Amino acid sequence: MALVVVTIVTVIQRFTKNLLGREGYLMHTLPVTESQLVASKLLSSAVWLLASAVVGVVSLVVMFCVGADFTELNFSNLLDDWAALRTSFEGDLLAILLWTALLCYARMLCTMLCIYAACMVGHQFKSHPALAGILSFFGMQYVQGWIEKLLRVGAGVYETALYTVVGDAGSIQTTLSAQGFMGCAALTLGIAAAFGVFWFGLTVWLMR
């Protein structure tokens, strides 16, 4: 939780202080366009998010290894469980996991661009810019979620297309073929990219 909070706060502070604060008097005199300034912040945020995600995964693995009891561990059973899990999917499980990670990362970048746009909207207000930015972010996210729900490609539909609960709560089976998964994943990725481009353009336009 601390990792998530520190990452978000750092990314927001670097954008607001570097482009909208006193440092902006130097940044906006550089021989670059507004698009390049926002793109540079997006690139640094992408690196921060990726590094934080890697550290978070490694931390969970270390916590599991420290707390787990390996005295009764049977690696042959683990291999059998992995093989059974792969056969339960109508497609390559590794490809599904990689696509899921890519979609999560793309949605995080889209959310970061929405934060940038909300910061620019809040900067237009002379009084209480932080409050205006926060309200703008939630408003933008609500509109984005409503449009995604309207197009039936939101996160809830994505998960429903992957898994369907049958019988008791612990019984889950795959209901989507590999081709269907790739199509759904590509469509979801395209929607996230479209919203990201829109938030990027809004940020650049307000900055100009």
Unreliable residue runs:
162-176
Q: Could you give the order of strands across the largest sheet?
A: 1-2
Q: Nearest-angstrom radius of gyration?
A: 21 Å
Average of the residue pLDDT scores: 79
What class, by secondary structure content?
mainly alpha
Shape: globular
DSSP helix fraction: over 70%
Distance between the termini: 35 Å
Give the quaternary arrangement of the chains: single chain
Largest beta sheet, briefly? Answer: 2 strands, antiparallel
The percent range for strand residues is under 5%
**SSE order, as H and E?**
HHHHHHHEEH
User: How many strand units?
Assistant: 2
What is the overall number of helices? 8
Structure explained in plain terms:
It is a single chain. By secondary structure, the chain is mostly helical. Strands 1-2 form a two-stranded antiparallel ribbon. A hairpin with a 6-residue loop joins strand 1 and strand 2. Helix 1 runs antiparallel to helix 3. The relative contact order is 0.11.
Give a concise summary:
The protein contains eight helices and two strands; from the N terminus they run H-H-H-H-H-H-H-E-E-H.
